[in-house]
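Consider this one:
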Amino acid sequence: MNELNVWDTIEAYCKTNDTCLIYFVNDKIKTADDAKKAEVWAWYQNFADEEVLILMKTLGDWDMIPVGNVDQAIANATAWFPKKEDCPDEYHHWICHVMGKDGDFEYRNVDSPPSNS
C-alpha cells in the first residue's frame, strides 16, 4: 500500500505547477462559539485581505493559497498570519507554512515544521 499525507500532496502540487503555497490551519477555531468566531474575524479584518478572511472562515475547507514566488508568499504569510505570541489567544492563531516551488518549507510561523515524510 502507498500512502500520502498533506505534505506529499503539497510538494507534488508545488513541483507540478511551479508555484509556492501558503498553507494555513487552525483547529482551535473550529471549537469556538459564534461570539468568539466573530471576535476573531473582527481582529483579522484589520490586516488580512478580504479574500483571505473568506478562506479562513471556511474553517479548513479552503486552506491553501498559491503564490508565484517565495518572496511574495512569505510577505503575504507574515502579513496575514501572525506568530502565536502576537495573537490575543489560541483561537486567533493560524499555523502557517510557506512551501517553495520545490515543495520544501521556506517559512513558518511556528517553531518547527511538521514531518515532511
In short: The first strand starts at residue 20 and ends at 25. The chain has a mean pLDDT of 94.
